[in-house]
């Protein structure tokens, strides 16, 4: 199982709830699609019992501080390509909608994971697009993450 989240916007309470959920569900990997915001959030992500893959978002202005804080947890970049259970996954924050669409249409990926809009959206198709919504809950009032079965590409939306 993979835990997917985005847009935590340094909401420590939301991050704690997500980490507890992911540990309880014994996920093998957590993917964060950007907007961690502050280096102090790394302390909460260190409590994960699984590997973390995370990327930068458009609000991650303190990149050097984030890289330093997260250096023992994960390597932060703007874009990631990973493979899980023979499924090819692209991770992008998603500020450029045309780029997200192009990644999905490329046929190269089984799943494109994105954030940025703070809107929960899962599009099934040849390439699945997953936006887990906002873990922080600041705009919608809903703190959401997604649990993804990487074998069958089935999923569950979880409200924290």
UniProtKB/TrEMBL annotation:
Its EC number is 3.1.4.-. One of its GO terms (molecular function) is hydrolase activity. Keywords: Metal-binding. Residues 2-149 form the Calcineurin-like phosphoesterase domain. It holds the Pfam family Metallophos_2. Its cofactor is a divalent metal cation. Belongs to the metallophosphoesterase superfamily. YfcE family. This is Phosphoesterase.
């Amino acid at each position: 199982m993979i835990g997917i989240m985005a847009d935590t916007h340094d909401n420590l309470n939301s991050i704690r709830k997500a980490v507890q959920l992911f540990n309880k569900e014994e996920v093998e990997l957590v993917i964060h699609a950007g907007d961690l915001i502050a280096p102090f959030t790394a302390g909460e992500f260190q409590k994960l019992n699984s590997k973390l893959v995370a990327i930068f978002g458009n609000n991650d202005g303190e990149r050097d501080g984030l890289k330093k804080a997260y250096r023992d947890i994960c390597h932060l970049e703007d874009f990631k390509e990973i493979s899980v259970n023979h499924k090819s996954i692209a991770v992008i924050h998603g500020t450029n909608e045309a780029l997200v669409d192009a990644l999905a249409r490329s046929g190269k990926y089984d799943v494109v994971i994105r954030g940025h809009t703070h809107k929960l959206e899962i599009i099934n198709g040849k390439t699945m697009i997953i936006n887990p919504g906002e873990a922080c809950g600041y705009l919608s009032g809903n703190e959401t993450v997604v649990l993804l079965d990487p074998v069958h590409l089935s999923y569950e939306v979880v409200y924290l």
